[in-house]
Structures are given as structure tokens and as C-alpha cells.
Amino acid sequence: MRPLPEPALESLTLASVLYALGDPVRLELVRRTYADPGRTCAVEDLGVPKSTLTSHWRILREAGVVRMAVDGRYRRIWLRTDELRERFPELLDVILRLCAEDSPHGALT
Amino acid sequence: MRPLPEPALESLTLASVLYALGDPVRLELVRRTYADPGRTCAVEDLGVPKSTLTSHWRILREAGVVRMAVDGRYRRIWLRTDELRERFPELLDVILRLCAEDSPHGALT
């Protein structure tokens, strides 16, 4: 697998991580990726065009929230869970918990 | 004082609150408002044009993060701290803590 470029942990900012998470589709992608590490970037059931989805994944990757790697025809995705926990203690876990309670798509996975 | 319109607590969404907080200037405004409730909307030292600042305050108000009221020539601002804590437990406190550690303007207030 060929990893895609990603920002170094120390260059992540709180504002850019919050911005990346500040969208209902991206929050749902984060929730699903946490639940299913290494999943592909394909998402069929959110009613989002593929180009929009690609843009959402890119925003998450460039903010340092997810890691992506090319695996043949697919891109595989992981949350940078441990790194985010180190850089922004408690943030990811609080948001994942609220997201599970709040998400209109919470029952879809 | 005349309060400006604000969204009801139950209509707030996690994504819109995170979006509102996902900007370094808005994070700094939130940090200062938490430290100085009822402050005016004037901010001289962030190098942000007044029209941009007005837009940042509006985004924070429309997302339900701050409450604003017209007080003569000024607008006064409060964080909706208790309501945010009720609607999104732990979120605001984690972000305020990280923001204090992370903000490049952390020493300005």
C-alpha cells in the first residue's frame, strides 16, 4: 500500500481539526472509520456525490484526522486515533461519543 | 439591553458547533469571552478587520456558541456555557483547555 501525504503530528492545529470535524458528513465518516479501521473510502448510503466525498476525505486527511493509503483500486482509511489523543487529549473521544449520540446516521453503520 | 436572535438549545448540532469553533480567530474570541463574560465585541489586537470580526461573532452566535445583546453603542457577548455543557457534555471544557494550551494568542488577554 502506498500512503498518501499527511501532516506531521506537531503541525496539527486545534482549529483545523475542529474545522475538519465541523460538517455532518465528515463527522459520520470519522465515526465509521473509527468503527472500521482500514475501511475503503467508498460510502454508498449517505446520498453524497462521489466528488464531494473525495473532497471530504481530503479535508480530513489534510487536517491530520485520517490516514489514507492506496491499495490497488481502493483507498483505505484509518483514523489517526493515537496521535490525535496524544496531541489533543480527550478531544477525539468526547467528539466520538457525542457524535454517536447526535448523528442522524448513527444507526446506519 | 436587547438580545439578538439565537438558536434554541435543542436545535444546535455538533457539526455546526465544531464548524464555528474551527477557526483560530473564533477560538480566540471564545477563549476571551469565557474569561470575560459580557465583554464587548471590540477586539483591537488580533489584526482582524472589523467586518471580518463581525462575521466571526455572527457565526459563533448563529451556531449557538455565544449570546449577544445590544447595549447602547456596543454589543455585549457571553458564552452559552451552561447550555453547551448540557447539550454537549465535556466538549466546551476540553476545547477551552486545549485552546489555552494551543492558542498563539494565549498570552494576549
Q: Give the tally of β-strands of chain A.
A: 4
Principal-axis shape of chain A equals globular
The CATH homologous superfamily name of chain A equals: Winged helix-like DNA-binding domain superfamily/Winged helix DNA-binding domain
> Which architecture name of chain A does CATH use?
Orthogonal Bundle
Tell me about the largest β-sheet of chain A: 4 strands, antiparallel
- Major interchain interface with per-chain residue totals: A-B, 24 and 24 residues
**Cα-atom radius of gyration of chain A:** 13 Å
Order of helices and strands of chain A: EHHEHEEHH
Low-confidence stretches of chain A are none
**Binned strand content of chain A:** 5-15%
CATH fold title of chain A? Arc Repressor Mutant, subunit A
Number of helices of chain A: 5
Helix fraction bin of chain A: 40-55%
Q: What is the oligomer described by this structure?
A: homodimer
Ends distance of chain A: 25 Å
CATH class wording of chain A: Mainly Alpha
Arrangement of strands in the largest sheet of chain A:
1-3-4-2
Structural class computed from helices and strand pairing of chain A: alpha+beta
The domain tally of chain A reads 1
The residue-averaged pLDDT of chain A reads: 92
How would you portray this structure in words?
Two copies of one chain form a homodimer. The radius of gyration of chain A is 13 Å and the shape is globular. Chain A is built from five helices and four strands; from the N terminus they run βααβαββαα. The two termini of chain A are 25 Å apart. Chain A is α+β, with helices and mostly antiparallel strands and 109 residues long. Chain A has a single domain, classed as Orthogonal Bundle (Arc Repressor Mutant, subunit A). A four-stranded antiparallel β-sheet of chain A has the order 1-3-4-2. The mean pLDDT of chain A is 92. Chains A, B: It comes from Streptomyces nogalater. Chains A, B: InterPro entries: ArsR-like_HTH, HTH_ArsR_DNA-bd_dom, WH-like_DNA-bd_sf, WH_DNA-bd_sf. Chains A, B: Residues 16-93 form the HTH arsR-type domain.
